[in-house]
Structures are given as C-alpha cells and as structure tokens.
Amino acid sequence: MEAIILFSILIVTIALSIPIGITLGLSTCIAML
Q: What is d(CA 9, CA 28) in angstroms, rounded to the nearest whole number?
C-alpha cells in the first residue's frame, strides 16, 4: 500500500517538474539572448 502512495507521489512530482523545467529553460534561453 505504501509503495503505491510513494509511486503516485513520484509521478505527480515528475509531472509538475517537467513544465517548470521547460519554463525555466526557456526563460534562461531568452535571458541569454
């Protein structure tokens, strides 16, 4: 049961971090131009 909860937390964390990472990457590229 705990493994399922940890796995879902991991998926949510990855799903949230991908758009944030893309946004940070784009803003960094724009700032460098």
A: 28
CA distance 23 to 6: 26
d(CA 15, CA 25) in angstroms, rounded, equals: 16
Give 9's contacts (C-beta < 8 A, 6+ positions apart): none
State the Cα–Cα distance between residues 21 and 33, nearest whole angstrom.
19
Task: Tell me how far apart the alpha carbons of residues 17 and 13 are, in angstroms, rounded to a whole number.
Answer: 6
Whether this prediction's pTM lies above 0.70 is answered by no
Residue-level pLDDT, tens digit, the chain, 33 residues: 799 999 999 999 999 999 999 999 999 999 988
